[in-house]
């Protein structure tokens, strides 16, 4: 019986699922605290042993993703903040990155210092539509080639097709690791994320994974296929394909709340109005100020700005969580407060995901979403009735300024299958679809 061991190496827990191939039948699941203090491969071997298949680690049957060590930190350098830099920002998010810095226009020394201070793992260099302005991309490429940016930080060049080869040549001459990809914004209103997303994944695996000091074992770099959010978005894509409907996923984490969606324009919306930067069919947003622990106080601040009700006891509790992220609720009252933070974080994150990115642009079309799926430890471990309250608040958010789904199914990815689907997709597509069908039995 052929099997694959699918592993997500998170900052807190390493989670594993043993899958039969090609049927996609789940043979077992387990998790263990991520072994950051020693070597993350210790945890991978531990979960393989727990699931009765320790040989998988050496047999090449492990498909892994990782968000340990802070995940993938990306800086975007573009031409205009509302055009190519924005396109690069959206593409970076879709590639599973946390965008830690965005610069636009011709880089000067102040801009360069700010970029370096953001400590990116990768720089995405974009600028100009094909046949448009090439000067800014050429200038920024030359500046970065000779800059004090660490020589281990790779660059993905995905701008004006006329300037790209010259920029790549300048980076090559300077000994900078880089990869050339197709323009993320070949024309106004057209975003082409595929090649840049693939390139970001490739340089993440080739240059970043091994450089985070997570493991001294050469197997580690060979096992990891993607950053965890990249794998989740791939899972959303397969899930939407199998379901034949749009999908919305809300992942409430300790530090961030991520929202993923698959949107297909239909009927009168099949040709939406032309926007400067088109929306992606498969999209992800990351809210770094909204989280259950490290960012709990940010939830309170944002809820006040959004005019959402904040219980009187919540600010003090949120401050305790931010100061002690490992703290868990000690009684029923604190469990209620915990779920209140989750409800507020989810509501605000979906508002931001769905609203128009710029004045005059259309909101993200979520009215035809057929499935809303909650994720994150707070929802996976909560009673189903409590998780339903969190998601129900999002789906009845009449004051959010976005169009609500008409009649979606609602559930929680309690078995953590989205990552499994996404990691299986490239090498075992039939198994991925089988797991996706299982995920729909919520």
Descriptors:
442 residues, Nucleotidyltransferase, domain 5, Rossmann fold, five-stranded mixed β-sheet, five-stranded parallel β-sheet, 15 strands, 20% strand, globular
Protein architecture, described:
- The chain has 442 residues and is α/β, with parallel strands linked by helices.
- It has three domains: 2-69 and 217-228, 2-Layer Sandwich (Nucleotidyltransferase, domain 5), CATH 3.30.420.480; 70-209, Rossmann fold (3-Layer(aba) Sandwich); 229-425, Nucleotidyltransferase, domain 5 (2-Layer Sandwich).
- Helix 8 (228-243) crosses helix 14 and helix 9 crosses helix 11 (332-354).
- Strand 5, helix 2 and strand 6 (98-104) form a beta-alpha-beta unit.
- It is globular.
- The chain contains 15 helices and 15 strands.
- Strands 3-2-1-4-10 form a five-stranded mixed beta sheet, with helices on both faces. It has a five-stranded parallel beta sheet with strand order 6-5-7-8-9, with helices on both faces. The protein has a five-stranded mixed beta sheet with strand order 13-12-11-14-15, with helices on both faces.
- Helix content is 38%, strand content 20%.
């Amino acid at each position: 019986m052929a099997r694959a061991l699918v592993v997500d190496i998170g900052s807190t827990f390493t989670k594993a699922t043993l899958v039969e191939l090609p049927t996609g039948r789940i043979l077992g699941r387990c998790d263990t605290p991520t072994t950051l203090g020693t070597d993350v491969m210790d945890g991978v071997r531990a979960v393989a042993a727990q699931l009765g298949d320790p040989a998988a680690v050496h047999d090449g049957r492990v498909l892994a993703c990782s968000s340990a060590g802070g995940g993938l930190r990306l800086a975007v350098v573009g031409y205009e903040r509302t055009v190519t830099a924005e396109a690069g920002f959206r593409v970076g998010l879709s590639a599973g990155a946390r965008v830690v810095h965005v610069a636009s226009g011709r880089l000067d020394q102040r801009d360069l210092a700010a970029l370096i201070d953001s400590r990116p793992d990768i720089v995405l260099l974009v600028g100009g539509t094909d046949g448009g302005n090439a000067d800014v991309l050429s200038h920024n490429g030359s500046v970065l080639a000779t800059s004090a940016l660490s020589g281990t930080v790779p660059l993905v060049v995905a701008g004006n097709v006329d300037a790209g080869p010259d920029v790549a040549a300048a980076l090559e001459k300077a000994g900078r690791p880089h990869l050339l990809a197709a323009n993320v914004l070949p024309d106004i209103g057209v975003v082409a994320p595929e090649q840049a997303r693939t390139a970001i994944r490739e340089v993440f695996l080739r240059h970043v994974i091994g450089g985070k000091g997570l493991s001294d074992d050469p197997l580690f770099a060979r096992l990891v296929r993607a950053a965890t959010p990249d794998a989740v978005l791939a899972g959303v894509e397969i899930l939407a394909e199998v379901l034949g409907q749009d999908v919305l996923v809300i992942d409430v984490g300790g530090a961030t709340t991520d929202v993923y969606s698959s949107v297909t324009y239909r009927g009168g919306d099949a040709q939406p109005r032309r926007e400067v930067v088109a929306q992606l069919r498969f999209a992800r947003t990351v809210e770094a100020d909204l989280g259950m622990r490290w960012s709990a106080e940010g939830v309170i601040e944002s809820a006040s700005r959004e005019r959402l009700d904040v219980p009187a006891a919540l600010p003090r509790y949120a401050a305790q969580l931010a100061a002690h992220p490992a703290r868990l609720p000690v009684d029923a009252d604190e469990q209620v407060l915990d779920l209140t933070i989750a409800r507020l974080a989810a509501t605000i994150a979906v508002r931001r995901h769905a609203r128009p990115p710029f004045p005059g642009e259309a909101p993200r079309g979520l009215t035809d979403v057929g499935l809303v799926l909650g994720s994150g430890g707070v929802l996976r471990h909560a009673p189903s009735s409590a998780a339903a309250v969190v998601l129900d608040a999002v789906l009845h958010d009449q004051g959010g300024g976005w169009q609500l789904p008409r009649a979606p199914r609602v559930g929680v990815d309690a078995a953590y299958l989205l990552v499994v689907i996404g990691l299986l997709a490239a090498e075992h597509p039939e198994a991925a679809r089988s797991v996706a069908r299982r995920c729909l039995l919520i």
